[in-house]
Amino acid sequence: MEYEANNLLGIVYGKLQEYDLSKKYYDKAIELANNESVPPNYQYRAVTINNLGSMYSIQKKYGLAKEQFLKGLAEKDLLRDRPDLFAMLNDNLAYTYLKLGNLKGLPDLFEKALKIREGSKLISGIIISKIHLSEYYALQKDSLNAVAMVGEAYRLADENKLTRDLLAVLRQLSDVDPKNARKYSSEYYKISDSLDVAERKTKNKFARIEFETDELAQEKTQLVEQRKTLIYIALGIILIGVFIFVIRVQASKNRELRLIQEQQKANEEIYSLMISQQDKVEETRQAEKKRIAQELHDGVLGKLFGTRMNLGVLNTRKDDEGIVQRVGYIDELKTLEQEIREISHDLNSEKMAVFNNFVLMVSNFIDTQRTVCQADILFNVDPAIEWNAVENTAKINLYRILQEAFQNINKHAKAQHVTVTFQKKDRHIQLEVEDDGVGFVYSKKRNGIGLQNMLSRITTSGGTMEIITRPEDGTKLQFELPLT
Question: Exposed/middle/buried for 439, CB within 10 Å: 0-12, 13-18, 19+?
Fold first, then answer.
């Protein structure tokens, strides 16, 4: 605690006779004791004031000492909170009066302090009070009481082995009992010498401790340096390991990226080959359809037409049976002619969107997904879309986007229904993939590889991507691609 530190420094500098520094720390301690956070029942302020008065007494500035002791006794509730401190201040004040030659109120003030100390069984305090009373009676030429008081103090100090108090008692005995002064002096010096020896032993012990502490400090410094070196080495090894790990991870990512790029390139080549193959198949199919149509139109229809004309000529017969038969044959031939014309017309038509290679590929993909995906899939293609106006690269990107969308649906969506729609919107093709699954928080998933791949593919073809989703509210992916 800061107060205790300053108060203790005041005492130490007082013992060293550094009185200015002692007063400085006492004043600081009193300032800290005035703080409202300090409990008043500790009476820190009175403690420091008493110490300050004692310092003035040592300097024989008894007037200043008296002021401090009176100030300390004026502290509120001092007797209730600290009776020992109250008795000490009274005894110090009485001794100050004695030194100033103001004997009014003495010895009552000494006895008041002594009574409190005896009630609290403060042995050292009792001894000091009796020594002071002995000095008072000696000043009054009352040798009997002077000797009696200091004798009682001697008994208490001896019984309780209070060596330093015993020295003060022996000094007073030498003053009030001249007959035995030599004995008391001899005992005083004997005790003083033993104390000196004890102090020297203590000093030597502290010196040894200090020396050993210095050695330990040096060893500690060496250990700290060794520890620092080990830490630096360990950190260096860790950093090198992390560096190697990062390099390996980066190299692995680069390899993976190259493999992905190569795979994408291979997929695109495969898709182009598939498109080319289907183009050839479709070309052959169209040529065959055209040939069949020509055969039907030029061959079969011609023959049927000739037959119908012959029957028309034969229809000049006037017998009823011939007329009925001929009319029946002619009607049947008309029917066959109309049917063959319709077949020829249908074979030569290119209205059906399924004949488009890209639509066929997407239809096949959707059929495959219906066997894999747990959701019901609805697939719609706007027949107004001019697929020939779409570049092959853009078709590849649309196909891959659709694959990626279904991959995410199968993994995460938990959807019951999925709708895939291709429609024409102004001069754009719009692909919309909508599900009624669990949805997601777009701000948290926007940097995912799948979404980034779809965005990269559509932007590469000059298109745009929009995602509408919320948790537990499904997902709608919209892609728009300009027609060329």
Answer: buried
On the CB side of 373, how many CA atoms lie within 13 Å of its CA?
Answer: 28
> What residue type is assigned to position 296 of the chain?
L
Sheet strand arrangement including 475-482: 376-381, 417-425, 428-435, 475-482, 464-469
Given the structure tokens 């006779």, which residue do they identify? 17
Q: Are 10 and 48 in contact (CB under 8 A)?
A: yes
What's the rounded Cα separation, in Å, for the pair 136 and 458? 112
C-alpha dist (Å) from residue 36 to 60, 259, 374, 420: 34, 76, 76, 78
Q: Are 66 and 93 in contact (CB under 8 A)?
A: yes
H/E segment holding residue 112: helix 108-120
The pTM (predicted TM-score) of the whole model is 0.44
Which residues have a Cβ under 8 Å from the Cβ of 253 and sit 6 or more positions away? none
d(CA 79, CA 117): 12
Cβ neighbours for 437, distance < 8 A, ≥ 6 positions apart: 375, 409, 412, 413, 414, 415, 416, 474, 475
Q: Which two structure tokens, joined as six digits, stand for 101? A: 């030659």
Question: Which one is predicted more confidently, 222 or 202?
Answer: 222
CA distance 86 to 77: 10
Q: Residue 379 is inside which H or E element, if any? A: strand 376-381
Q: Give the side-chain half-sphere CA count within 13 A for 269.
A: 6
Confirm if 48 and 29 have CB atoms less than 8 A apart.
yes
> Which amino acid does the sequence have at 475?
T
Instruction: Locate 266 and state its tokens.
Output: 């291979």
Note the pLDDT tens digit of each residue in 87-117. Answer: 999 999 999 999 998 888 889 999 999 999 9
- Residue at token pair 């006037």: 318
| Structure confidence at residue 351 as a pLDDT band (50, 70, 90) | very low
- Closest alpha carbon to 41 in 100, 82, 5: 82
- The average pLDDT across 213-242 equals 88
Please state whether beta strands 428-435 and 475-482 pair in parallel, antiparallel, or not at all (unpaired).
antiparallel
Both structure tokens of 102: 């103001």
Classify residue 33 as exposed, middle or buried by CB count within 10 Å of its CB (0-12, 13-18, 19+): buried
